[in-house]
Amino acid sequence: MSAGDADGGVADADADGGDGPVETVEHVSGTGVPIRGNDIDTDQIIPARFMKVVTFDGLGQFAFFDQRFDDDDEPKDHPMNEERFQEASVMAVNANFGCGSSREHAPQALQRWGIDALVGESFAEIFAGNCLALGIPTVTTDAEAVADLQEFIENNPDTAIDVDVAAETVRYGDREIDVAVDDAQRTALVDGEWDTTALMRSNAGVVDETAQALPYVDD
Amino acid sequence: MSDRTLYDKVWDRHAVTELPTGQTQLFVGLHLIHEVTSPQAFGMLRERDLEVAYPEHTHATVDHIVPTADQSRPYGDDAAEEMMSELEENVREAGIDFSDPTTGDQGIVHVVGPEQGLTQPGMTVVCGDSHTATHGAFGALAFGIGTSQIRDVLATGSIAMEKQQVRKIEITGELGAGVEAKDVILAIIRKLGTDGGVGYVYEYAGDAIESLGMEGRMSICNMSIEGGARAGYVNPDATTYDWLSETDAFADDPEKFERLKPYWESIRSESDAEYDDVVTIDGGALEPMVTWGTTPGQGIGISEPIPAPEDLPESERDTARRAQEHMRVEPGDRMDGYEVDVAFLGSCTNARLTDLRRAARIVTGREVHPDVRAMVVPGSQRVQATAEEEGLQDVFTEAGFEWRNAGCSMCLGMNEDQLEGDEACASSSNRNFVGRQGSKDGRTVLMNPRMVAAAALKGTVTDVCEIEEREVPTA
Description:
CATH superfamily of the largest domain in chain B: Aconitase, domain 3
Number of strands of chain A: 9
Protein name (chain B): 3-isopropylmalate dehydratase
Largest sheet of chain B: 5 strands, parallel
EC number (chain B): 4.2.1.33
GO molecular function (chain B): 3-isopropylmalate dehydratase activity; 4 iron, 4 sulfur cluster binding; isomerase activity; metal ion binding
Distance between the termini of chain B: 53 Å
Oligomer: heterodimer
Largest sheet of chain A: 7 strands, mixed
Number of domains of chain B: 2
Number of strands of chain B: 19
Shape of chain A: globular
CATH topology of the largest domain in chain B: Aconitase, domain 3
CATH class of the largest domain in chain B: Alpha Beta
Largest interface: A-B, 64 and 83 residues
Pathway (chain B): Amino-acid biosynthesis; L-leucine biosynthesis; L-leucine from 3-methyl-2-oxobutanoate: step 2/4
Strand order of the largest sheet of chain B: 5-4-3-6-7
CATH class of chain A: Alpha Beta
Number of helices of chain A: 8
Enzyme class (chain B): lyase
Radius of gyration of chain A: 19 Å
Structural class of chain B: alpha/beta
Strand order of the largest sheet of chain A: 6-5-4-3-7-8-9
Shape of chain B: globular
CATH architecture of the largest domain in chain B: 2-Layer Sandwich
């Protein structure tokens, strides 16, 4: 992982010839950045005009662009513009984060800005799935706990937030809270099985059999 | 757990195996791709030296960036041209069918799939676009996916998914005057919330759903994602089969139609199917819906007052306050009379032939308000061609609408069709998020296509029931 402290390392890269590396993500540790508000959609996370690209490289600078910059591209008041949050890798968000468009550009932009884990009340499904495909945990807890975490980060921007995916806890300062991690997400991250292309390619024969048994699939 | 529903049956037929993560590897029957979310996936494929496993189950079109005015190549926008070229190269290399603008078949991916008969009942359909839920109108399991998942599907013909719960949403009664499918789905999202569908697939049922044509069903399924549900579906029936029989896939191959029909019938939810949740809404009590805020859940009937944030659940109050500030509306006011600068009739939600036909019945012989910029953007080149044959183009252009070429256009503003400054737009599209239509100060009011037509004529949000329908002159 880029900015975080995900442990585990690379295991059995290219196991079946050509598929990508598989890392385990048991926990992510880094300082936090609070992003407040419910229903933050992917149009806000990465405005549509920045999607006119054929690679995801360079999207980091456009994360939350319209919240961060005015019409003259001058920085506005936004946590991601504050010096004290520049090294953050854990984003603390509220409810239904990442709703709207399925664009993977959104988590790609956040990851390229430096985010390696999100803690929130709830996440839109496709967004969470896209995060998982990038090895970014999206862990959930209740509204009160999120508000407390956001406040803690505001007051302690230099303190590491430790998101333990395996143990389903988030530790910060002298506090430890329980969080929920979707079962499949936890297994995939902790066991290093989030690169589904590699996993599924090994079942190519069964895919063919399944397809051939379907009435609408021509021989 | 749901049992004996269409969802269960189609899921089981497509399940390849259980993955170590507990997810199911699911075979994908139809993979639709377009220029925004697939180039990066092809890039990932190349990095790994992998090929497209099932090009014959893949179909491409171009929609988000395609200009709706001057489509000569190279496109005026370099970035758009690069995306188009990339797609052309990718589909050529992989041998994937491509409904490009020279074919006469190009259009929004969720219009093109159904009209060509690519989308069929009992299929799994995926696309890197959240409105893939549209295809559920045919009794398919259709999911929007991200780019890494597109890579999965390209490389393996399958996708890793967790099984979800099924919520049956029954819309009873008969829809009233002026009320369309769009109003039904806006009412559903208002009732269940923008995140109410997380973890669920929605099965839409009941008399009001069954009485809808395929286009109306598509409008409803299309916006499942706005309610947080990744997929929604309607059980296939005679209406579905009638549509399919006239598509490319079956029009010249009635034997194939007869061969597949038993399968389509077999995957319908059983009468004794078990659901994880059932919600009933009286369709007869609905009126045309309009949004007052900046999420699709912030909608009201045209005659209703805009709610006060303090009267909403606590978790919605801040969002509502910010939305009302952005939209410049006050609690207690009605949206009826809200001034609009732009009227946009288009998008994968409402740019099909019946949408255009219905709106034309409002527009015929009338004029767009002088302060309104109004545009019609057909969902596909086929919709466009038929509408032109029927004389709909003349109805719209004589009234003062711009008549444009097929594409996503002003729904999300990835081409030149965008709101400017703080313009307010009456829109038949699916999202009213801040910045969605290309300007971060722009204001979007979602409504059904006839309501968009009414707003274009009056210059304000207007109850379409106040405007008498007229016969559209035949071309």
